[in-house]
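User: Here's a chain of 294 residues. Predict its fold as tokens.
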Amino acid sequence: MKKHISKILFISSMAIFGTIAIFVKNIPIPSGEIALYRAILASILITVFLLIRKKPIHLREFKKSVPILLVSGAAMGFNWIFLFEAYNYTSVSTATLSYYFAPILVTVVSPILFKERLTIKQIICFIMSTLGIVLITDLADLHSESTSLLGIGLGLTAAVLYATVIVLNKFLKEIDGITRTLLQFLSAICVLIPYVLLTGGLNLNLLTPISIGALITVGLIHTGITYCIYFSTMKDLDGQSVAILSYIDPLVAIFVSVFVLGETMSILQIAGAVLILGFTLLNEIPISLPQKNK
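Assistant: Prediction complete.
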């Protein structure tokens, strides 16, 4: 019963993640500022969550991990900035698909960083996902407003930063998911404050009641609440279920892009989406060959 409830909550968190673009597009301030407020609001909520659960954070235990937390927090903050900027230059579906190249990037660097062997399946998945990235650019359609190489480039940069966070998290095994995320958010805030002040300052005067509501939704629901649900339920599910269910996020994002925001996708872009999501998913699912009877 607990596993069933955890699966429903995990699916809900993925679906919520997939709708973030609707709200980000209604916040008329720079992407860096959105990322900063997102981190602040989420940090407050997660702190309250940990206090309610009476789970104190003993910083002395994480002293050795502080440098990694700082770097990963900075990568997380700028990852948000580049993703939100990608929404401004290309469609949400194209930006999201570019962003979802991150797991493949982790696979490629793992043999170098963790001495993991790259299999034939992983090489094929990398090649086919890369082909998918080429297809979503749809070079014949670059003159249209919905597609831009700059937007795809920003999405891929966000993917590199997200892959950096994933890789660095492998070195933070002694810290549980929610605590680690809070510390990374706090690190992101430390980096984003000077960045925002140096690149345009605070623009709260540009916010309307609707955009304030959108910003609070992004910070509290899409980040604070959803991250708590994500990490609280993930431990109750097996790795394969997590890998498969995580693809609800980009699928919802594509649905939002086409049916809510009215953005279009060409045949080539749809084919690229299938290649990226299909082979990235295949890369994460272990394939066991049937054993012959002796």
